[in-house]
UniProtKB/TrEMBL annotation, chains A, B:
Residues 39-277 form the Xylose isomerase-like TIM barrel domain. This is Sugar phosphate isomerase. The keyword Kinase does not apply. It comes from Wenjunlia vitaminophila. InterPro entries: IolE/XylAMocC-like (IPR050312), Xyl_isomerase-like_sf (IPR036237), Xyl_isomerase-like_TIM-brl (IPR013022). Transmembrane segments: none annotated. Keywords: Isomerase. Coiled coil: none annotated.
Amino acid sequence: MTGDHRGAATRPGSPGLSRLSLNQETVRQWSLDELTAGCAAAGVPGVGLWRDPVRSYGVDRAASLVRAAGLRVTSLCRGGFFTAVDPAERARALDDNRAAIDEAATLGTDTLVLVSGGLPAGDRDLVGARERVADALAELAPYAAERAVRLAVEPLHPMYAADRCVVSTLAQALDLAERFPVEQVGVVVDTYHLWWDDTVGDQLARAGDRIAAFQLADWVTPLPEGVLLGRGQLGDGSVDFRWFAERVAAAGYRGPVEVEIFNPALWARDGTEVLAEVVSRYQEVCAVPG
Amino acid sequence: MTGDHRGAATRPGSPGLSRLSLNQETVRQWSLDELTAGCAAAGVPGVGLWRDPVRSYGVDRAASLVRAAGLRVTSLCRGGFFTAVDPAERARALDDNRAAIDEAATLGTDTLVLVSGGLPAGDRDLVGARERVADALAELAPYAAERAVRLAVEPLHPMYAADRCVVSTLAQALDLAERFPVEQVGVVVDTYHLWWDDTVGDQLARAGDRIAAFQLADWVTPLPEGVLLGRGQLGDGSVDFRWFAERVAAAGYRGPVEVEIFNPALWARDGTEVLAEVVSRYQEVCAVPG
């Protein structure tokens, strides 16, 4: 995988941006055509894509579009939601994740981001739910590996533990990932989810080659209702991005740095302007060496 | 302090409720007169009070009211907000906390709950902020001890780390508390803040005599804007209360069990009805031996 990353780093015409990737949900107002054209024009070599818009566009067609623009897909968001107890529901989730792996392979990305899923209704057993995540990883990892796709377990902020993701810390994500070969299962380091945790420095050192993706968003308050769409533009909040970038680099990660901000205030603006702001903030708060 | 707790446990006429305390913010619609009358009538022997309503009522007068109703004050909420860098602001915070300690002593409670404070505006240094909390504890602990008041450091859910409390886990709270004599600084175990953390079982065992208060609220979603007033009635959400009660008991805690639910839906109802529901849910999900 580092080969791909070095490839991206040699892209000409984008000094300081060779590792930057724009996750498409940051500019939800943009179509895939606008996204690829916009990133190419701005010298941003990577895009992080989401399954729904890619499927609407057509997976093969999206893959061609990104390639034709001279870009690469740095990650596909997202598979996961593995915590159902009902066997039929579990089988459906696994099928859907195999489809997500196929889509990632078609898009040419080696990284499928996984959000584990929350507690089933009425269930209070976090430990059991995390074990079902491990079971699902065991079923999917070989299938993904055959397609050169790595499963990237994303710990989400503890405020999502009940309804979205029972994996809340980098330590928990690593506890899961380390049950599998390093090339098959990694972890996502997203500053928005992990910034508050005083153990995250040690866990980043522990993570080493397990780091499959590095995503940036800032923490701003007050949180909106439902707490999903309140991420901040880089530099607007509490996250010390340089601290994270240094530790992720010290762990050996040389891959893409993906900006993923869900915020209706950004979606209401001109996409080109938002991307320009992302680029300038990225350079300001945490530009990482190519 | 265990002497006090045993005293409460022998209160007659309230089988199974001898350790139950109602935090007044659970029934914000009630005046202090209504609160004390309501708890006495329901056989709930303890009340957790907040500084603002107590000061409006008069601290001495509130202390007499609670005593006359045959109740005890299990905790005073709250002191803290120690993270300012500005010396004048820090001095004001310390003065205010000395006043809170005096109020706790007047009310006859041995427990002052402390919420540490968030990051100062524009500050991203969580480690530094936590050190300023430790410095404040060092200044206040002897003053509190002279008045038989114990400082109870409350870890708040990580979603409050930026704007309210840089102490996010029980481990962090214990790291702070353990710098001081056990009788001077303890920790608050609140299920709402800690339920998601897979290290909390080990930390409860570590806590032992440091547990100064045990508070209950359930975790329900979706979270409301600002995430302050979305706590759930016991049994309505994801918290395994019995799991907590057993581990808190195993750690040696025999003190009050305080129900503290901030939720406008409860405030809109008849207080007597809310208290009856709290009592019945408490007995259902986690009644602890007297």
